[in-house]
Write a structure and sequence with these properties.
With 575 residues, this protein is an alpha/beta fold. 41% of the residues lie in helices and 14% in strands.
């Protein structure tokens, strides 16, 4: 930031994020930390200049931005810094933020290592690891010290930016696409790249534009508040850094050859190589700009014409990974009709204020009915998850009474299902007794704690739960919740074999931090004969939309509506 311009939304958000992180390490009150973190996220998602809004006294019109944050935004704009941030930097080394994000460390241990060993950054932590001093810190034993040492060894200061989850990247891509569509010279705009192929995360965002005036369209984009800086620019292509720090690449092409551009920008490198090889054997040279062949140069306005030139049917974007789709495109049989959100008859993994949800059961039901679903399975947490107000057997029965009352009032066939997300305990046992489990319409069993114990341990727990005659679904099988933790490296083949044998369903959890199963595991489950559940894991009505991320994964795995349990009317055949 320089004195002659206001800070960008990204710079303001970064300052608030750092302030919140340092206050977390210092042990500040949770609500104070959340105010800065939530404010930072809101600012990153705002298209207008938040600095300009704050100067005009209008930043408080944004959700999560109060007078205190507005004054600090003005302070940052006027002085280039925030006094509160500078003060906390004097108390807490800023390098601890990076250390706290290492697996096995966290804020508390980062502070302990600082106070006991003088560790303040990655370099000093590496020295402490090399000298074998981690076990001098109270609470860090040999096993934990070895885990931290492994995390330090794996850390690279020059590592490329981590992939960003689709829950962040896709909405941002759609915002950029909306900005591009505002310009009258943009005839068509599409999200391409790995996001269009349904991947769960992305290094960057790819967009393609059909236009005869690329300079005007790209200049319009560069002026958007969504853009933090222009990283590279050419006559028909620009790379910008968004106000969320994610790189966005936009490529323009003439409308008459837009099909070539979209196809090239969507297919994986291996898929595109396969197409070029086929084109060469047919006497053509194929590229994103069109093709050259016996009849000269030409191009296509849509993708279907590109594949037709090569004698192929057009595969869905999600399966363009060079996994046999080119060969299947040559045969007489059509590609399988992949599942869509419109195929869903209902959702069965949602939470209410009975446990850790943020809305009441009637309001969640009302939202599901408004979406056109025929049923909603309320699956609040079981009793062992005390931090989420898990349900005791007595509270389960009281919830059932509320569900019965609701169902008595429906005259259109809609049904609220009595479900549970029951914890799989450390030994693989279940959190409820058999007599209670028999009363549920559907039982989802999930691992929430002990994920860090390792893939073998989590696999054993899953396999034991699958053998229970009361368990219908295994929820988010690896237990990942990014960025807080990666999932366990479970033996998906063993889990899928057991699930297929017993008729147990495996979940694709669409909640953006989870997206679990991922598409590779889901594909292997389908190959083993397992049915899938696609869920939102919604904790509010708005989060019912998270099911769309699960649908993307299911499509990428090759799932049809017949493969997804909750595309069928209730009751299903479970086990």
């Amino acid at each position: 930031m320089t004195a002659d311009r206001d800070p960008s939304n990204r710079e303001i958000a970064d300052a608030f994020t750092l302030l919140g992180d340092l206050l977390t390490i210092e042990g500040a009150e949770r609500h104070r930390v959340r105010a800065y973190h939530r404010g930072a996220e809101r600012i990153r998602d705002t298209r207008e200049s938040v600095a300009a809004l704050a100067r005009a006294g209008r930043a408080t019109g944004l959700p999560d931005i109060g007078k205190t944050l507005q004054s600090k935004i003005v302070e940052l704009a006027d002085t280039g810094t925030i006094a509160a941030l500078e003060r906390v930097k004097e108390r807490v080394p800023a390098g601890l933020v990076e250390l706290a994000r290492l697996p096995g460390v966290g804020p508390g241990r980062a502070v302990a290592m600082w106070r006991e060993l003088g560790v303040t950054d990655m370099e000093s932590l590496r020295a402490a690891v090399g000298e074998g001093r981690l076990t001098d810190v109270p609470g860090i034993g040999p096993k934990l010290a070895a885990g931290i040492a492994a995390a330090v060894a794996a850390h690279r200061d020059d590592a490329p930016a981590p992939r960003v989850g689709a829950g962040v990247a896709l909405p941002l891509a759609e915002e950029f696409a909306a900005v591009l569509r505002e310009h009258p010279a943009a005839a068509r705009v599409e999200v391409a790249g790995s996001l269009r192929r349904g991947r769960e995360d992305a290094h960057d965002i790819d967009l393609v534009v059909a236009t005869d005036d690329p300079a005007a369209v790209l200049a319009h984009l560069a002026a958007s508040p969504l853009v933090d800086e222009v990283a590279a620019a050419g006559p028909a292509k620009v790379a910008v850094i968004s106000n969320r720090g994610l790189r966005v690449e936009v490529t323009c092409g003439p409308p008459g050859r837009f099909g070539n551009l979209l196809q090239h920008a969507t297919g994986s490198a291996a898929h595109n190589t396969r197409l070029r090889e086929r084109a060469k054997r047919m006497g053509y040279s194929l590229s994103e700009h069109g093709w050259t062949g016996p009849d000269g140069e030409d191009g296509a306005p849509d993708e279907e014409a590109v594949y037709a030139l090569l004698g192929l049917r057009t595969p869905d974007p999600e399966i363009r990974e060079d996994r046999g789709e080119t060969e299947r495109g040559l045969g007489d049989a059509p590609f399988p009709e992949l599942v869509t959100g419109a195929d869903l008859a209902g959702q069965v993994h949602v939470h209410t204020t009975w446990s850790d949800g943020r809305e009441t059961l009637p309001h969640m039901v009302e939202a599901a009915r408004a979406l056109g679903y025929r049923y909603l399975g309320v699956s609040d947490h079981s009793q062992s998850l005390a931090l989420t107000r898990g349900l005791t057997p007595d509270r389960v029965r009281r919830q059932w009474d509320e569900i019965d009352a609701l169902n008595d009032g429906f005259g259109d066939g809609f049904r609220v299902l009595k479900c549970t997300e029951m914890d799989i305990l450390a030994d693989g046992g279940l959190d409820f007794e058999d007599d209670l489990l028999e009363g549920f319409d559907l039982v989802i069993a999930s691992v929430h704690q002990g994920v860090s114990a390792g893939g073998d341990a989590v696999t054993r727990r899953l396999l034991r739960a699958i053998e229970s005659p009361h368990v219908d679904v295994i929820g988010h099988p690896t237990g990942r919740k990014r960025p807080r933790r990666e999932g366990a490296s479970i033996d998906i083949d063993a889990v899928a074999e057991a699930a297929a044998r017993t008729g147990t369903i495996l979940e694709i959890n669409g909640q953006p931090p989870r997206q679990d199963l991922d598409s590779d595991m889901a594909r292997r489950a389908l190959e083993a004969g397992v049915r899938l559940l696609v869920s939102s894991d919604a904790h509010s009505p708005a989060e019912l939309g998270y099911v769309s991320y699960g649908i993307r994964i299911a499509r990428r795995a090759g799932a049809t509506a017949a493969d997804v349990a909750n595309c069928a009317p209730w009751p299903w055949r479970c086990r």
